[in-house]
Design goal:
It contains 8 helices and no strands. The chain is mostly helical. Helix 2 runs antiparallel to helix 3. The protein is elongated and about 80 Å long.
């Protein structure tokens, strides 16, 4: 009985917005939409830099996803899409938003800390070594390179020197 009622009622509909309908289409208020709180939407987006709009979405996605991988991705996108001045201003504002100067200091210290010592590897050590080297400071790179060179056998040291010489010539 309910199915018949739905069918009979739905056949009475006049297809509002259909091109062949005698009724007019539903008004589209996309230019000046009125929000649920009765206010009009701001037109600021029309004047925003497109890369800034994309960054606003990226930070929204990152906050929604959360986690270390999402924030690492945010760092990569931020570096690609924002200038040094914009990133510095963003970092300044975020550090200022923390509750205490101690919290800001802890965050800054964690960002500015370096790679520490390399972790042992299980399979192929080169990808892990390259990852560690990308996080290490110049002083750490020099210290570990010298220590690793000194720990090699004389034969391995010669092979390493030959490899470095080939790389210099190729460059």
């Amino acid at each position: 009985m309910a199915a018949r009622r739905v069918v009979s009622v739905s056949s009475d509909n006049k297809r509002i917005g259909c091109p062949t309908s005698t009724h007019t289409a539903i008004d589209n208020n996309a230019e000046n939409p009125i929000l649920s709180n009765g206010k009009k939407r701001s037109n600021l987006g029309a004047f925003m830099n497109p890369s800034h709009k994309r960054m606003a979405r990226v930070i929204g996605y990152t906050l929604t996803i959360g986690g270390a991988d999402a924030w690492a991705g945010f760092t990569t996108v931020t570096r690609a899409r924002l200038t040094v001045e914009e990133r510095a201003a963003l970092a300044w504002a975020v550090l200022r938003s923390l509750d205490t100067p101690e919290q800001a200091g802890q965050v800054a210290k964690s960002v500015l800390s370096f790679a520490d010592y390399p972790l042992p590897t299980f399979m192929n050590p080169m990808p892990d070594a390259r990852l560690w080297a990308s996080c290490a400071s110049a002083e750490e790179l020099k210290a570990y390179a010298l220590a690793a060179h000194d720990a090699m056998t004389v034969r391995d040291q010669m092979a390493f020197r030959n490899h470095i010489s080939e790389v210099e010539i190729a460059a």
